[in-house]
User: Fold this.
Amino acid sequence: MRVFALLPFAAALAACGARTELQPAPGAQLPVAPYGATEQPTADKLLLPEVQAEPERSVELRKRSEQREDDPFDLPPQN
Assistant:
């Protein structure tokens, strides 16, 4: 039981490692610059998601209760 209690603390401690600038693995190179780019992106720049990969929330939350419409797929369980 104590092992399970210490597991989150050990995981948090392992995640606190020193952060250094990212570099490609030995013998590997960064991908070539995209067509039309003026400079090759760095490793940190490549890790940032594009806008389409991480869109902003555009759903308007409901301000008040509304009556639900009848759902034809909400069927009772079959015996």
Observations:
- The radius of gyration is 25 Å.
- Helices lie at 2-14, 43-47.
- The CA atoms of residues 22 and 43 lie 6 Å apart.
